[in-house]
Design goal:
Structural class: mainly alpha
Order of helices and strands: HHHHHH
Distance between the termini: 36 Å
Strand content: under 5%
Helix content: 55-70%
Number of domains: 2
Number of helices: 6
Length: 105
């Protein structure tokens, strides 16, 4: 689970929001804050974040596209433009086919 550090003021606000019943608990507050920030992000920002996540975490292109809020083809093109191509296959023949397909994107 993610841990975060708050300033004293932020911790008091967090505690106050939960105590006032605005949120059921601190986790709900954090989920809402993240969702709100994400919805306010531009498409380019979401694409950049999804590209970074795809490059550093095991996920499919379809899931990265879902995270970014775009289609699979657009996400594939963005990944290729960013130079992010994950082969993830062991045998040479499969890697060769993957490379050919990546060039067509």
């Amino acid at each position: 689970m993610a841990q975060y550090v708050l300033t004293e003021r932020q911790a008091l606000i967090e505690e106050g929001l939960v105590a006032a019943g605005k949120f059921g608990n601190k986790s709900e507050l954090m989920r809402t804050a993240i969702d709100t920030l994400w919805k306010q992000s531009s498409k380019d920002e979401r694409m950049n974040i999804a590209t970074e996540l795809y490059a550093s975490h095991p996920m499919s292109i379809a899931y990265a596209a879902e995270v970014a809020g775009v289609g699979v083809v657009e996400m594939s093109q963005a990944l290729k433009a960013a130079g992010v191509i994950r082969l993830g296959y062991d045998d040479e023949r499969t890697q060769a086919v993957a490379r050919k397909l990546a060039k067509r994107l």
